[in-house]
Amino acid sequence: MEGKIKLTKTYRYFTHGDPEKAEHIWIVLHGYGQLAEFFIRKFRSLDDNHFIIAPEGMHRFYLQGTSGRVGASWMTKEARLDDIEDNHLFLDELVGQFTSKYTFQKRTILGFSQGGATASRWHQRNSFNADNLILWACVFPPDLESSYSSPVFQGSKNYFVLGKQDEYFQEKYYDIIKTYKDQLPNLSIREFEGPHNIDQETLISISKEL
């Protein structure tokens, strides 16, 4: 018989920028096997008007074997609904600590690769009231395929960013994303010449449009 128990867990996050000076807050969610400490470095190219928060997935593990480099994950298929809810509670509490203290004119959620599923689900929850959703090297998770026409997604500016040499992004995803244009009028699809990574030129270009 399966049982469950609720306990307090310590979650980790990293920030970049000055929340007292920035007008734009970003919540950036890393991909599978990454750590927030290193993922946030990809956003240092944004100017001082941007304050970046990089939460870290609750599941940390060794990338190879039982020692060496460590990565993190947002969830697996096991007990997925519990993990989804825990992720939402973590993100709600985290951003609340900053938005209750500082005033931001713009709010953006960016999800990279596996982080895109968590970003999409959290955006739909609408507790952050994000102005912009950027899904980088990913598509909507299957459980949201019938929900992205909801007022939350209709009210935000939405970006899908794809690397033409992305070794993980399957060709079929391009066709999937193109079907979103019929449902999401505020949708922009961006491509860049590069692999599975945050392309700095593309990132800066999008940031100037938000």
SSE topology:
Layout: E1 13-16, E2 24-29, H1 36-39, E3 50-55, E4 59-62, E5 70-73, H2 80-99, E6 106-112, H3 115-125, E7 132-136, H4 151-155, E8 157-163, H5 171-180, E9 187-192, H6 200-207
Strand arrangement within the widest β-sheet reads 1-3-2-6-7-8-9
Let me know the average pLDDT.
94
Output the structural class. alpha/beta
Classify the fold: give the CATH topology.
Rossmann fold
C-alpha termini separation: 50 Å
Low-pLDDT residue spans: none
CATH architecture identity: 3-Layer(aba) Sandwich
Number of distinct beta strands: 9
Q: Please write the CATH class name.
A: Alpha Beta
CATH superfamily: Alpha/Beta hydrolase fold, catalytic domain
Task: Sum this structure up briefly.
The chain is an alpha/beta fold and 210 residues long. Helices cover 28% and strands 23% of the residues. Strand 4 and strand 5 (70-73) form a beta hairpin.
Task: Write a structural description.
Helices cover 28% and strands 23% of the residues. The protein has 210 residues and is an alpha/beta fold. It has one domain (13-207): Rossmann fold, CATH 3.40.50. The strands form two sheets. It has a seven-stranded mixed β-sheet. It is globular, with a radius of gyration of 17 Å. It starts with 12 loop residues before the first strand and ends with a helix. The mean pLDDT is 94.
